[in-house]
TrEMBL record:
Transmembrane segments: none annotated. Residues 141-245 form the HMG domain. This is HMG box domain containing 3. InterPro entries: HMGXB3, HMGXB3_CxC4. It comes from the Eukaryota.
Length: 689
């Protein structure tokens, strides 16, 4: 433990962290908290060359009366809404954390030093020395007891900031300082931008101090967030991860709090953690498998029972939403902004209404199609469904032109009755033509909207998550479902991907193929013609399997970690042939022939299809959790792949990603191309991290 020199506590002064204001030596720093640009006052630029912030403060004397906020009056509801938006924008712009612990090492070292630092305070008595009065010695933490941003002007609009007392819009408040070993009561000064078009709150938010501000109620060291992330990656729920971090030290002061106070800290720590993750900079392309790249040859469907409770959530389905396309980046930015707002302005939210039409799947940017879709709003789930073989007959009749739904009235009653018998429908001689047509349309609707492919979820929860993963267990795309899973959810994910996989393994092969036949008939015709996804005509030779990729093991797929081949199904396999696409020379087609294998009866892989259950009550946290797990687990696998390639590299070789983002090794000629050598060494160093 570090101990500093003795300080008489009567003479003790309050300290705070320096956020980079001009110094006494003629230098100044950019006022953007996330920028460390320093300049000499004699050569102060008008605009920061590093972040673009204006360094010339506005002359507040010229501001017209009425354009500045009166901080002694309560904010209106409209002003509070504006303040929320501005404050969130301020954080997103100025506060960003590196994901790598190596990049945060300086900050983490500071946290450890302050946790172990002990200041000795000695009470100096007013009595004469010869009276031999004993002195009192106190031990205090190295952390300050007062925190305040040193900014004087808003980094969003350069207007002046105001701070005041309890009856103002920017008071001084008491909050907790929470570290791995300490819990202290400290004071925090809030500042507010006086621009009535901004009103952003400027609280203490300094990256270099290692503290994260949760709603001006808790200042928590970011090493605790890193421990939370590690525990979540190990499989703990966020609530379990918080409990593990808070209570792993038996002598931690948090044990002295009341159960109510502990519950509040527990909730705030979870809320702050998700805000921290939203402000963490990461490239989701880093999770793309190094063997498969952006064009996996095999993908396996996978279900997870991570659910969202509908107790405090109401999903709405706007009728005005016509397009199936969703804006992926906008949706995830909305979730991040919501999580940030909850952390900056924590409150008990009533029923939360969520626009379900904007919900997007999570697919790494380089693996996305130019158009990403989510057709869940169009789901029409029926109570009963006919057998797949009977519905296959319906699809064949439509493809062969024997049944035209737009001209049903041209069929006689007997023809309609015969068609329904072939499709396995229950018909009687008493049924009239209108009833017969209604039965056929009902069968068609079942296939067209997507047959159910999973059990009905509880009415109090969402339906979990559907993912597709490559054989190396790297996630290629995932979709959180609200309603019951159907075949169309599988088709949505496939259509939203940049490339269809040659082989797609699923336990609902026929449902997916029939849905694609009905939803995208032209595409399905190009892919498999009349075969409904089979290798050959399913009504003639359903047992025949012929596949160039699986010649050695026609009924097997490589799924095991040790690259062992395991049988999946005895007979039923489905193929989808992707239509040719225009490709560029720098972006070659992923495979010679594009096909999609759908396999049925995947009992050996039930662990892949149904995983553990985690229940959430917060919408934003639910979606962010699923995205984070996909990234962390996949990126760990990719890092292992990179390390294996690095260990095999010979002198003069570097690890690269090719046009399809697959890991490769490139040889360089140091004499011919010095610039290439420099770039390659930098890349190699990055991969080693």
């Amino acid at each position: 433990m570090n101990i500093v020199s003795v300080v008489p506590f009567k003479q003790r002064t309050v300290t705070s962290f320096n956020l980079g204001l001009p110094t006494a030596r003629g230098r100044g720093w950019c006022k953007n908290p996330s920028c460390d640009y320093m300049y000499k006052n004699r050569h102060k630029p008008a605009v920061c060359p590093k972040c673009g912030l204006s360094l010339n403060q506005k002359d507040t004397k010229g501001i017209k009366s009425g354009t500045l906020l009166d901080p002694y009056k309560p904010l209106t509801a409209a002003q509070k809404d504006l303040q929320r938006q501005s404050t969130i924008h301020l954080l997103q712009r100025s506060l960003q954390f590196a994901e790598s612990e190596a990049d945060l090492q300086e900050t983490l070292s500071l946290i450890q030093e302050l946790n172990s630092l002990q200041i000795i305070l000695v009470h100096q008595s007013d009595a004469e020395p010869e009276d031999n009065v004993e002195t009192e010695t106190l031990f205090e933490s190295g952390w300050p007891h007062f925190f305040e941003s040193n900014a004087t002007h808003c980094s969003l609009c350069t207007y002046p900031l105001f701070k005041g007392g309890q009856i103002t819009a920017a008071p001084q408040v008491d909050c907790w300082l929470l570290t791995e070993t300490l819990m202290l009561r400290v004071s925090l000064q809030i500042k507010i931008c006086l621009n009535v078009q901004c009103l952003a709150l400027h609280s203490f938010t300094d990256i270099h101090s290692g503290l994260f501000n949760i709603g001006n109620k808790v200042l928590v060291t970011i090493d605790l967030f890193l421990k939370l992330r590690a525990n979540i990656k190990l499989g703990l729920t966020p609530a379990q991860a918080v409990e593990t971090v808070l209570f792993h030290v038996s002598g931690h002061p948090i044990h002295t709090l009341t159960p109510e106070e502990i519950g509040q800290i527990h909730e705030l720590l979870q809320t702050g953690y998700w805000a921290f993750e939203c402000l963490t900079v990461r490239d989701y392309n880093d999770m793309i498998c190094g063997v498969c790249g952006v064009a996996p040859k095999i993908e396996i469907s996978q279900r997870q029972n991570n659910l969202l409770s509908l107790k405090n959530v109401e999903f709405i389905w706007p009728e005005s939403s016509q397009s199936d396309e969703v804006l992926v980046d906008d949706f995830w930015l909305t979730m991040e902004s919501e999580a940030l707002e909850q952390a900056v302005f924590p409150s008990d939210a009533p029923i939360i209404r969520v626009d379900a039409s904007i919900i997007a799947p999570f697919i790494p940017p380089l693996m996305r199609s130019s158009s990403v879709i989510n057709t869940e709003k169009n789901k029409v789930l029926t109570a009963t469904e006919k057998s797949l073989s009977n519905l296959s007959v319906l699809v064949r009749l439509i493809h062969d032109g024997h049944l035209r739904l737009d001209k049903l009235e041209e069929h006689s009653e007997e023809e309609l009755r015969t068609i329904l018998h072939k499709c396995g429908a229950d018909v009687t001689q008493e049924m009239k033509k209108d009833e017969l047509m209604g039965s056929l349309l009902s069968l068609y609707t079942q296939v067209h909207t997507g047959l159910s492919t999973a059990p009905e979820p509880s009415p109090h929860f969402t339906a979990g998550k559907l993912s597709k993963v490559c054989p190396h267990k790297v996630v290629c795309g995932s979709k959180c479902l609200i309603k019951r899973e159907t075949a169309r959810d599988h088709v949505d994910l496939l259509l939203s991907s940049r490339y269809w996989p040659p082989v797609y393994v699923s336990d609902c092969a026929q449902q997916v193929a029939l849905c694609a036949d009905m939803q995208y008939p032209d595409l399905a015709t190009q892919m498999w013609g009349r075969n409904q996804g089979c290798f050959c005509d399913p009504f003639e030779n359903p047992e025949i399997v012929s596949c160039a990729e699986l010649q050695d093991q026609p009924h097997s797929v490589d799924l095991d970690e040790n690259h062992q081949i395991h049988p999946i199904t005895r007979s039923v396999s489905r193929w989808l042939l992707h239509p040719p696409e225009e490709t560029h020379s720098e972006d070659p087609p992923p495979v010679q022939h594009h096909s999609l294998l759908l396999c049925k009866d995947l009992e050996p892989y039930s662990d892949l299809l149904n995983e553990f259950r985690t229940i959430f009550s917060n919408t934003a946290h639910y979606y962010l959790y699923n995205r984070l797990l996909d990234f962390l687990t996949s990126r760990d696998i990719v890092n292992q792949q990179i390390n294996q390639v690095l260990q095999a590299c010979q002198p003069g070789e570097v690890v690269i990603r090719d046009a399809l983002y697959r890991i490769g090794v490139a040889k360089i000629d140091t004499q011919k191309d010095e610039e290439l050598l420099i770039a390659s060494v930098i890349l190699l160093g990055f991969l080693k991290e």
